[in-house]
Amino acid sequence: MDDSIRVHYWASARAAAGVGGDELAVDGPITLEEVVRRAVALHPGTRLPDVLKVCSTLVGDRPVSSDDPGRVEVRPGETVEFLPPFAGG
After folding, report:
1. What pLDDT was estimated at residue 87?
2. Which CATH number applies to 4-83: 3.30.450.20, 3.10.20.30, 2.60.40.60, 3.60.150.10?
3. For the chain, domain boundaries
């Protein structure tokens, strides 16, 4: 059984974090709100908190951006992706 949640940062979120992603060790499901809190704590003093506020978010392949992050459950083995707004066309 996988005991971590993979966090993947895209574009400006990746630039703000300074890495492409993080692995969060967990004992069971946690909320998306907790995923964000822990991700931000791993990168203190960066712009990551501001960037994550404007990101679209996927848990697995499920879009959850409009859901309350305190009510979105993320299970061990899942991937959370933060996708900033993309410019251009």
Report:
1. 58
2. 3.10.20.30
3. 4-83
Alpha-carbon 66 to chain mean position? 14
Distance from C-alpha of 80 to C-alpha of 62, rounded to nearest angstrom: 9
Model confidence over 2-29: pLDDT tens digits? 799 999 999 999 999 999 999 999 999 9
Mean pLDDT of 63-86: 94
CA distances to 12, 22, 77, 85 from 27, rounded to whole Å, are 30, 16, 11, 32
- Which residues neighbour 22 within 8 Å (Cβ) at sequence distance 6 or greater? 6, 7, 39, 42
Is the entire prediction scored with pTM above 0.70?
yes
